[in-house]
From TrEMBL:
Domain ZP: start-end pairs: 1-108
Coiled-coil region: none
Gene3D superfamilies (alphabetical): Zona pellucida, ZP-C domain
Taxonomic superkingdom: Eukaryota
InterPro entries reported in the protein's UniProt record: ZP-C, ZP-C_dom, ZP_dom
Keywords, ordered alphabetically: Disulfide bond, Signal
Protein name: DMBT1 protein
Gene from which the chain derives: Dmbt1_6
Originating species: Origma solitaria
Length: 115
């Protein structure tokens, strides 16, 4: 566990352990939730590659297999003093511009209501 105070920055780094130098990481979703096994009802920091938290900052990494970011810890929306950070990363081939990693933020379109 990492202990941070309210409004203190939490720095996160993800590292892909692979001998293939042509792989890269993409942060698809990152959710803070009161339990370690359930992300529904959690607070989305990043969702579908779209930043949802105004304190989120991505950091440059000289290597595509290392992903770095920070966000500010917030007062829990739940009565539990512990918050779990659960992130979903996507691994892609570097320079494959058709991959999910290069699509960036994907907003889902709303369905049209039938008459």
């Amino acid at each position: 566990p990492y202990y941070v105070n309210i409004n203190q920055s939490l720095f996160v780094q993800a590292y892909l352990h692979s001998s293939d130098p042509n792989l890269m990481l993409f942060l698809h979703t990152c959710v803070a939730s009161p339990t370690s096994h359930n992300t529904t009802g959690g607070y989305a920091i990043v969702k579908n590659g779209c930043v949802r938290d105004p304190t989120y900052v991505a950091y440059y990494s000289p290597h595509s297999h290392i992903l770095r970011f920070k966000y500010s810890a917030f007062r829990s929306l739940w009565s539990n003093p512990v918050v779990y950070l659960q992130c979903e990363l996507v691994v892609c081939r570097a320079y494959d511009y058709s991959s999910r990693c290069y699509q960036g933020c994907v907003r889902r379109s709303k369905r049209e209501a039938n008459s």
